[in-house]
Amino acid sequence: MDxxxxxxxxHDDELDGRFHSNTEINVRQSNGIKPKFRGKVTTxxxxxxxxxxxxxxxxxxxxxxxxxxxxxxxxxxxxxxxESDTTIGEEQMQRFExxxxxxxxxxxxxxxxxxxxNGGDGHRKLPQKAFYIIGKKGRPLHVxxxxxxxxxxxxxxxxxxxxxxxxxxxxxVSFAADDYLGLVSKKDIEVGPPAATGxxxxxxxxxxxxxxxxxxxxxxxxxxxxxxxxxxLTAGSLSATEPRYATHVRFDKRLEQNRPxxxxxxxxxxxxxxxQKWEVKGN
Length: 283
Known about the structure:
By secondary structure, the protein is mostly beta strands. The chain has 2 domains: 1-74, no CATH class; 89-263, no CATH class. The protein has 2 helices and 20 strands. It has helices at residues 58-61, 194-197; strands at residues 13-16, 19-21, 25-29, 36-37, 41-43, 48-52, 66-68, 93-95, 99-104, 109-116, 122-125, 131-134, 141-147, 150-155, 158-167, 180-185, 188-191, 202-216, 226-238, 246-251. The strands form 3 sheets. It has a 15-stranded mixed beta sheet that branches. Strands 2-5-7 form a 3-stranded parallel beta sheet, with no helix packed on it. It has a two-stranded parallel ribbon with strand order 3-6. A hairpin with a 5-residue loop joins β10 and β11 (122-125). The two termini are 29 Å apart.
């Protein structure tokens, strides 16, 4: 996280994996409810802001440890390295000029519906190689469905998640799981309104990179649903998700060695236990 919104605090949330913020982290405790960070937490700040209960039991919140005052991590600035990659053919790309809803199918295909514009609807099979879905500036891309393949969705403006996004093969169930989804926006990635996502829990299996903000647009709710993110989450800032959703972020451990095609990377790493080679899944 690049900038922590001072009006947002983690509360009824759980993060299973490493977490870093370039600014102060806001933690809220109330009625025995508190967040849980199960992986190591680092922040460039020297303080943790608390609200609700005046006393913060760091060991009960930061279960994987807390390190303050670390060097800031700059977000990657390059978003489209694949456009200059001569090894990637046009058959590996689909460009959309209009606001479009994209639905992934568990059989390795996807369909699209133009929401605003003159383009036509369609259906296509994903290739075995990495595949890139590219939007146009000012024309949001809406996504949902079951991904079977290796896909990167890029928008210079906004990606809207309209429903569950999962993999055909769950990495924690199938040893041979090889499905990867990257959502990359130069600006925002947004969870659609309840009318789009429906009631209840929301599942998002993806590596998420929002250079601007990752947000839940309509936060009204009854505190009885959870947004599960399985993969990774990198954002310039985050919105609050309650009362519509509690949030549970679980790191996809495959990302320690692999990543979705052309997914942005930081230029800083901390090696804790490593004896294998980095492999880019895709081309």
